[in-house]
Amino acid sequence: MKQFYLKQFPNEEGYFGKFGGSFVPESIQKAMQEIDAAYNLIAQNSDFIAELRKIRKHFQGRPTPIYFAHNLTREYKGAGIYLKREDLNHTGAHKLNHCMGEALLAKFMGKKKLIAETGAGQHGVALATAAAYFGLECEIHMGEVDIAKEHPNVVRMKILGAKVIPVSFGAKTLKEAVDSAFQSYLKDPHNAMYAIGSVVGPHPFPKIVRDFQSIVGIESKEQFLEMTGELPDIVIACVGGGSNAMGIFSGFIDDSVELVGVEPLGRGEKLGENAATLSYGEEGVMHGFNSIMLKDSKGEPASVYSIASGLDYPSVGPEHAYLHSIGRTKVATILDKEAIAAFYLLSKKEGIIPAIESSHALAYALKIAPNLKGKKILINLSGRGDKDIDFIANTYGYGEVY
Ligand SMILES: *Cc1c(COP(=O)(O)O)cnc(C)c1O
């Protein structure tokens, strides 16, 4: 399998082992096949690749650096702690990596409009940014709970010219926003392109988003080798749908590097109190793909919870389900309160305010670092925390104890 993992998975029907696929009505199936065919065509096209490279360098500000967290490393007296700084990617998170790719694909296909859901608002902001860049219309569906919690991102989307559609049914969070966005897309698949926010959804989205995010892994491997002369021992990323994790994991998947996905344990292990899908879920189909999901007593997607809106999802990318099932990746969990502690620590000790999502990955790294002297840990710092500061300061204060 060496060196060939990314080329082998998914197969032509979009399967990673038994996970993935496309469970959608006939009418959408056709639209999905068109997107897949267009993507396969442009992925080989040197003009498309050159255009994407130019955008990454001059618009997004890539490559993002790897930073050696010297203060935390000294304080924890164990493994070296390194951060891949996706918080420095334009718009403040890794999501623009796949949004620029998806929008370029939409442009290539002659689409006029981008439609998507958003949780924390990060995907909405990234897609609205991409839409502005390419001169496309943009419609973002967002749960009312998240709209209240992530106000600055809502304002950003509107300033960028996107239409924000509040979703007021069910738990009013990410899962309902996906349903709502999909319904809107169904009305006009000819002129619109659905631009999903993670490595989830029906084939070909998990593949497309993974491929666009793989730039994080490619850069990380090169930069880490240049910095330290070797590969990291452990790579850690938070997992909501799983795009930032797949992005960085994909660079190391054929190497002997431990890969750990960190899921949100929220307030605890009880169903409804967390969104730790791989840890507690079971196989099932949701939003058009087969994966591991958290189900309620009726077998429907459970309502889930995390302090991090971006991790608040009852399923997970099918590639994560597969990699976990074959033992290639490990899964860990982090409570809200552990993520909050990590949020304050990185802010005060290194001068970097992380997204509360990314704080989950950091919290797990800080947990294991003291016992791993001589090892090196690379964390994907998926985003910056500006969007979270008001909520955290109002709820928990300024973290004076850290
Ligand atoms: C959306 C988001 C996540 C979670 O999404 P993945 O697809 O699991 O990466 C993580 N971190 C940040 C900063 C986000 O905005």
Automatic annotation (TrEMBL):
Domain of life: Bacteria
GO cellular component, as recorded: cytoplasm
Keyword field contains Signal: no
GO function terms (MF aspect): tryptophan synthase activity
SUPFAM superfamilies referenced in this protein's UniProt entry, alphabetically: Tryptophan synthase beta subunit-like PLP-dependent enzymes
Subunit structure: Tetramer of two alpha and two beta chains.
Protein name: Tryptophan synthase beta chain
Source species of the chain: Helicobacter apodemus
